[in-house]
């Protein structure tokens, strides 16, 4: 057995955080260290990786202040150097990729993980990247046993688990028809977003044509059977009185990721078979998915004032119009504070701004109190169930919390998960204890109301 094969068989690290010196990466490091070598955690060894060892050391020092950093391995790897990435994959069971934008830097990392059979999680919110990785690497990942799961941060776990949580409140014979998520960002100071999120949105506009081309080149996915007709489109600006928000459609990755999970669930109604799951886990998985009902899903961003919504629309227009040309993208990415009206800036938010921010994501489900009503041709839902997911700042606090609760599931419950493949998070983590884990770390799931709708 060669040295490389020996490393792959017995990797020295449970996980490696790639891009640990970036804005989000250093928060991921801080979150990981909370669970390193704790009694209930399968996380016993961590390494940090990136292009600049000095910056990685600084990130580690920042993550542990005011205490001295523990002896954590620092490894050099570059997304433009495939050999360094393959070397990285032989040293670990799992890569946490924080290097974005993923369209520019993500594929070499996925390719190295799939080649070596190493598992992979990222915090991507870029639909074109995620779907391209599935198209190119799913079959090989099935063979090599590499489990590749994107969108394991605020994009798109709250949406995935939030929809599943709302769906499970519809007890037979009741069935949902649509679930609309309303995102509200709140802060005691000012809201400042992650520049990487802004950059991903700009590149998303630039790659919209490539995404459509990719979808046309692939076989059509299975479509879930949803009782009743699709919901009406409604007006551009909506006032949701029950949750106190004005709202407008948010062109996020969440609906796309959710649709991928629902398509996979339509193709696999009992979920995905674990590589070595025991009969008890098989029954648990089947029972869980039998309670999840598909629904039309969308996301809107909300504000307590109409002026706030008009601000969302203005920023959306800047990104939508300027993101289509090279000159426009240069302006957006070099002057983010100007074109986002102060919401995004290159240096990111201060620690105070991060700690003072939070989110609420309301899930307004509408459907039928009895499935027979929909099958009889009734077009108007008569029941509404509202649930909510709520947590701290989305980019630097919620995202690391989610990522570092997904990771121990891959490390400690690997036998109950599929052997390999490229998947969205919902179909993998839905039947696991991920919701319970993130609830224990500051993200709540609540039932708000259940009421009859006027006829």
Automatic annotation (TrEMBL):
- Taking every annotated instance into account, which residue ranges of this chain make up the domain Saccharopine dehydrogenase NADP binding? 16-148
Pull one GO CC term from this UniProt entry: lipid droplet
Q: Which GO terms describe its biological process?
A: glycolipid biosynthetic process
Q: Which domain of life, per UniProt?
A: Eukaryota
Q: Which Gene3D superfamilies match?
A: NAD(P)-binding Rossmann-like Domain
Pfam families to which the protein is assigned, alphabetical: Sacchrp_dh_NADP (PF03435)
What's this protein's family per the entry? Belongs to the saccharopine dehydrogenase family.
Q: What is this protein called?
A: Saccharopine dehydrogenase
Organism from which the protein derives: Quillaja saponaria (Soap bark tree)
Give the source lineage, highest ranks first: Eukaryota, Viridiplantae, Streptophyta, Embryophyta, Tracheophyta
């Amino acid at each position: 057995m060669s040295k490389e094969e020996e490393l792959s068989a017995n990797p020295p690290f449970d996980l490696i955080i790639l891009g640990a010196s970036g804005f989000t990466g250093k928060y991921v490091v801080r979150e990981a260290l909370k669970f390193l070598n704790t009694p209930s955690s399968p996380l016993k060894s961590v390494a940090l990786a990136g292009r600049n060892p000095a910056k990685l050391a600084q990130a580690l020092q920042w993550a542990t202040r005011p205490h001295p950093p523990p002896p954590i391995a620092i490894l050099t790897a570059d997304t433009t150097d495939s050999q360094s990435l393959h070397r990285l994959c032989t040293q670990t069971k799992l890569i946490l990729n924080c290097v974005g934008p993923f369209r520019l830097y993500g594929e070499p990392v996925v390719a190295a993980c799939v080649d070596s059979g190493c598992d992979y999680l990222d915090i991507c919110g870029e639909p074109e990247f995620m779907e391209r990785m599935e198209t190119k690497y799913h079959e090989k990942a099935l063979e090599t046993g590499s489990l590749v799961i994107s969108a394991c941060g605020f994009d798109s776990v709250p949406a995935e688990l939030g929809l599943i949580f709302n769906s499970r409140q519809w007890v037979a014979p009741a069935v949902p028809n649509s679930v609309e998520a309303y995102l509200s960002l709140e802060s005691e100071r000012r809201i400042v977003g992650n520049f990487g999120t802004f950059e991903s949105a700009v590149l998303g506009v630039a790659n919209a044509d490539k995404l459509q081309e990719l979808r046309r080149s692939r076989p059509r996915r299975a479509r879930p059977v949803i009782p009743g007709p699709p919901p009406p489109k409604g007006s551009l600006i909506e006032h949701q009185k029950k949750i106190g928000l004005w709202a407008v459609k948010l062109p996020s990755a969440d609906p796309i990721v959710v649709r991928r999970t629902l398509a996979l669930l339509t193709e696999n109604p009992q979920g995905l078979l674990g590589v070595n799951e025991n009969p008890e886990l098989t029954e648990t998985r089947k029972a869980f998915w039998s309670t999840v009902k598909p629904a039309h899903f969308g996301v809107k961003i909300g504000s307590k004032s109409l002026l706030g919504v008009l601000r969302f629309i203005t920023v959306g227009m800047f990104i939508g119009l300027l993101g289509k040309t090279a000159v426009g993208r240069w302006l957006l990415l070099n002057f983010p504070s100007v074109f986002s009206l102060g919401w995004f800036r290159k240096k990111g938010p201060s620690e105070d701004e991060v700690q003072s921010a939070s989110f609420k994501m309301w899930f307004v489900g509408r459907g039928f109190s009895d499935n027979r009503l929909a099958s009889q041709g009734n077009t108007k839902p008569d029941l509404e169930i509202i649930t909510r997911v709520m947590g701290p700042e989305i980019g630097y606090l919620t995202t690391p919390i989610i990522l570092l609760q997904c990771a121990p599931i891959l490390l400690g419950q690997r036998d109950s998960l599929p052997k390999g493949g490229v998947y969205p998070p919902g179909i993998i983590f839905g039947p696991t204890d991920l919701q319970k884990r993130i609830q224990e770390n500051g993200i709540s799931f609540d039932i708000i109301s259940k009421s009859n709708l006027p006829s």
